[in-house]
Amino acid sequence: MRIFDPHIHMTSRTTDDYVRMAAAGVRAVVxxxxxxxxxxxxxxxxxxxxxALVGWEPxxxxxxxxxxxxxxxxxxxxxxxxxxxxxxxxxxxxxxxENVVAVGEIGYDAITPxxxxxxxxxxxxxxxxxxxxxxxxxxxxxxxxxxxxLDVVAESGIxxxxxxxxxxxxxxxxxxxxxxCWAGFSIYPQTKMxxxxxxALLREYGTERVLVNSAADWGTSDPLLTRRTAEAxxxxxxxxxxxxxxxxxNPVTFYGQSGKLDLTVEPAPAATFAxxxxxxxxx
Amino acid sequence: xxxxEWLPAAQAGIRQDPTxxxxxxxxxxxxxxxASAAARVTLLTALAELPDGPAHxxxxxxxxxxxxxxxxxxxxxxxxxxxxxxxxxxxxxSNDARLVAAALGPAATALDQGTWxxxxxxxxxxxIPLAGVHDLDRRAxxxxxxxxxGLAAERDAAGRALPADAAALxxxxxx
Lengths: 283, 175
Ligand SMILES: [Zn+2]
What we know:
The complex is a heterodimer of chains A (283) and B (175). Chain A has helices at 15-23, 43-54, 56-62, 76-79, 87-95, 113-129, 142-156, 173-177, 195-205, 225-235, 240-256, 269-273, and strands at residues 3-5, 26-32, 67-72, 100-107, 133-136, 163-166, 182-186, 210-213. Chain A is of the alpha/beta class and 283 residues long. Chain A has one domain (3-256): TIM Barrel (Alpha-Beta Barrel), CATH 3.20.20. Chain A has an eight-stranded parallel sheet, with helices on both faces. Chain A starts with a strand and ends in a 10-residue tail after the last helix. Chain B has 175 residues and is mostly helical. Helices cover 71% and strands 0% of the residues of chain B. Chain B contains eleven helices and no strands. In chain B, α4 (53-62) packs antiparallel against α5 and α7 packs antiparallel against α8. The model of chain B has no long low-confidence stretch (mean pLDDT 96). The structure holds zinc ion (ZN). Residues 7, 9, 32, 34, 105, 215 of chain A line the site of zinc ion (ZN). Chain B: This is Sugar phosphate isomerase. Chain B: It comes from Actinoplanes utahensis. Chain A: InterPro entries: Metal_Hydrolase, TatD-like, UCP005295. Chain A: One of its GO terms (molecular function) is hydrolase activity, acting on ester bonds.
């Protein structure tokens, strides 16, 4: 089984996770830029974070045979801090980078005017760069945030096929299905979507234009829930072909629209010469 | 534009406006695929020869991803040492074996001996083949050999061996 996790924050995970993910069939990931728990207070903090997403993290992933791509954006939560507004000036140059396959996560957190401004500006950047977009839907007031997101996406003029609306559930999926946008689902250990509920949704809505991710990060989450959901699909009578559509072909199709998806894995020198563990520099 | 046409056009673009280099270098993989690594070095070498070119080369490094930084490190022999040294030192501080190895290529002649020795020792830690270290035989001095000897003793105590190339360097120079 080959798995492409289209939304996972590997920066927050350990090398043990990479080992377990690779053993479970995860061969490719996309890491969206997002909040890191501690609010950042200046653009320099974001530049270093973005540099890690286009530098260190893909290198680290490659040592475990996992292909790593990123999405770059100022996230909605931190868009509310005026000290971080200048991050928007940094985003376009990162969108040119080789492993950046989308703009994201953008969207709403508390649905404020500052979030509106960042969302609209970054949709325009995606159109300019010819990249797909990853839209985060808020945890609170999800329905209102979703409807407003769909309106802003429509106003931006971006091709809906380039947009995934993420963190959907049984209530919010229908509105997205009525558009040309992709539907994203994050499978969590306790709250939100579970593997079995995901399988029920796949039965109802089919496997087209659907992305299923673990959204694993620094909070309670599990990077193997992609695999668990794939197993639940098989147990429920879906074919291996259906599983491959959801967990490989769909993310390849969606992020492939960037023209930058590269799924060949080159072993890093350290992996070749010093075994499979991340080598620690002496200095 | 075909890939064959892209490189000369990018070269002309950079000659006309050196500030266009950052965008063109970032775009190279999308235009050229695997051939982009060599093309980037060609573009950076041409950029280095322009007035203010070396500063632009350094700018590409500081705003670059790993691929762009590797290309800059390969092009560094074309820029003055004062510009090259901070970039080499940054690459040696990283934990990316590709960057560390690239910093010890031909441009490493700009590094002072102390920094260079630490770089070679880091190669041994990271398992980077010493064959790629520029001028190793001439530049290896008693202090480097003493450092390698200390590392060999620590490894020995832990029941581990030095990489074969480092062990060979130690034996050869001790004789
Ligand atoms: Zn996320």
